[in-house]
Amino acid sequence: MTTATSKPESGRDTATEKEKWLHAYRRMMSIRLFEEQVNEVYTRALMPGLAHLYSGEEAVAVGICEALRIDDYITSTHRGHGHCLAKGASPDRMFAELLGKEAGYCRGKGGSMHIADPATGNLGANAIVGGSVGIATGAAFSAKTLGTDRVAVCFFGEGALGQGSLYEVMNLAQLWKLPVIYVCENNQYNEYTHYHETTAGTILGRALAFGVEAASVDGQDVRAVNEVAMRLVKRARSGGGPAFLQCDTYRYSGHHVGDINREYYRSKQEEHLWKTDRDPIVMLAKWLIDRGYTDAASLDGITSEIRATMEAAVKFAIAAPYPSVDEVEKHVYA
Amino acid sequence: MPDRELTFAQAVREALAEEMRRDSSVCIIGEDVAEAGTPFKVLSGLVEEFGAKRVVDTPISEAGFTGVAVGAAMTGLRPVVDIMFGDFITLTMDQMVNQAAKAHYMSGGHWKVPMVMRTTMGATRRSAAQHSQSLHAWFSHVPGLKVVLPSTPYDAKGLLKAAIRDENPVVFFEDKMMYKLKGPVPEGEYTIQLGVADVKRAGDDITLIATSSMVQVALGAAMMLEKEGISAEVVDPRTTWPLDEKTLIDSARKTSRVIVLDEGYGRYGVTAELAAVIAEGAFYDLDAPVKRMGAMHVPIPFSPPLEDATVPTEQTVFDAAKLMCKPS
Predict the structure, then answer these.
(1) How far is it, in rounded angstroms, from Cα B80 to Cα B118?
(2) Residue B143: is the preceding peptide bond cis (ω within 30°)?
């Protein structure tokens, strides 16, 4: 596992390394500021329904997706904005989807919990906990059967460990040596319940029981996540079979934007500790500055630039038209 | 030269084999589908022709492999999933209802799920309450799914080929009591469009709308009625969705009397829906209330005389039709 003081990766010159991690920094900051705007739009009562924010977990989506090609597949979750952005989705069309507008990725028919985008291999976010484990495994089955070298990544929270279908498909994937990586984002809470109260045994033990290659990583350290992801993706792509990666992370916000009073299930002190000591963006920023790849002023510049992009995306979405009501019966059948 | 005859099971197998030869993306996924050819031997010989990569045996994990089929269908394959007994669709419900049925709509038309789920239905096999149900109404309720109920070997072949070529998730219910039923199936290529009903027998006095094996029951009852001077028309919707409402309504308006027959449970079921279609479309042409006949609202019992009492028979349909046409 890499640490904040690890040496430059072998075989990479520093210019490439600098470019790679500045790119990752931008992606992580994009997710953070996207979610900041989502909360803002919700608070201003401009958004129909709710949204589940990914803030605090950015290093997982970015660390994994930076190890993927654009034609590799992902499946995402109800807390999926980070996965979409990390795989390359555009914030303006995402905000349009969140507001139910025709310009959205799903023409407004999916909303926050169902963003899908074939152009970036995003098979869709899923509002059933564990609902996409079969779809991701099926995409890997296609890749193997059709002889492409695509890999599928299945993102899910530790809450999905309670769903039996996960164990059915991990068994299948291992039997058939499918190129799928199950990424368990352990943000500590199944909705409003700590995972210790819902999860017997160990998380990795579940994968190991099937003989699936399993690893755990500090999900706040994007470079560590990426290093493991690169290895597992390479392994899957070359026929080595499925893998399971536990990423320990933290959900900064509530279960959804409306979950404001959280002290009955977790303390403010706990939240404060994660946000100050373990923030994935701060950790990467420190590393970039320590290595001389950037400085605080440049990073502030990046933040301002991305914030402006997000504000423009929100404006675009607010101004965008709703789909025509005629659209309601379209796309029920292909 | 008389038409070639095949059994229902042979017709299903021939449809699969022809489609697998035509399109290399078609594959079969399910429990004991390869060397075993399923407990009903419907798939015998397919793994020998197409290999284990395309006729894929799975663990006993209906939710898991149905989910895999959904994902595979979204990414370039056309899987045909085999769910051995229709009772086991309960285990696949999230994959079919929340995933397969909704992926196209939720993605604004971007993703498609061209998969088929083949499964069985039908009682009187002495298989008791968890291997005898006819649960096709459940899937018929869900927007995004299509549901096919073939009643003859000819229809089974043409409808299955159309289902495999369809761009949507299609559930194909085979009445296991019909697997040995023989009927004419011509050599050569044909498909039957989903959503087109078939008048299986023309008549003037009463319409028997029937699905799956109940079509055979209705045809038997129609022969008995003919001897009583009653001319019965038998109409087979062939698919519960899409539903050819026009053909059903036209027949009801012509004969003015309708019995709806389906082996599922009547309450909130297929017969309820079909009766409502007739009531809405032919009310002023009817001479009697629409009658519904289906499985009794009980778990299917094991004991033979009890089980036999749960489903409509030629005799019970004959009695009901005669009473409707010639009230005493």
Answers:
(1) 7
(2) no
All structural domains of chain A, each given as residue ranges with its CATH number in brackets, are 14-189+205-315 (3.40.50.970)
What sign for the dihedral angle of Cα B120, B122, B124, B127? positive
Confidence grade of residue B327 (pLDDT, cut at 50, 70, 90): confident
In chain B, which ranges are continuous DSSP H helix?
Answer: 8-22, 46-50, 62-74, 93, 103-106, 136-140, 153-165, 213-227, 245-255, 270-282, 304-309, 314-325
Q: What is the pLDDT of residues A166-182, one digit of tens each?
A: 999 999 999 999 999 99
For residue B243, what is the domain's CATH number?
3.40.50.920
B173 lies in the same domain as B262: no
Q: Is the pLDDT of residue B160 over 60?
A: yes
B166, B22: one domain: yes
For A75-99, write each residue's pLDDT tens digit: 999 999 999 999 999 999 999 999 9
- ipTM entry: 0.95
Q: Cα angle vertex A107, ends A102, A110, to 5°?
A: 130
CATH number at residue B104: 3.40.50.970
Task: Give me the mean pLDDT over the A266-274 stretch.
Answer: 96
Interface probe for B, chosen from A141, A146, A324 (most Cβ of B below 10 Å), is A141
- Write out the residue range of the structural domain in which residue B14 sits: 5-184
Nearest-Cα residue of chain A relative to residue B24: A146
Q: How far is A59 from chain B (nearest CA, A)?
A: 26
Tell me how many domains chain B contains: 2
Cα distance between the two ends of chain B: 47
User: Count of CB contacts below 8 A, A vs B?
Assistant: 146
pTM value is 0.96
Contact status, residue A187 vs residue A57, Cβ threshold 8 Å: yes
Of B53, B68, B76, the CB nearest to A134: B68
Tokens of A51: 């949204």
Q: Is B230 inside any structural domain?
A: yes
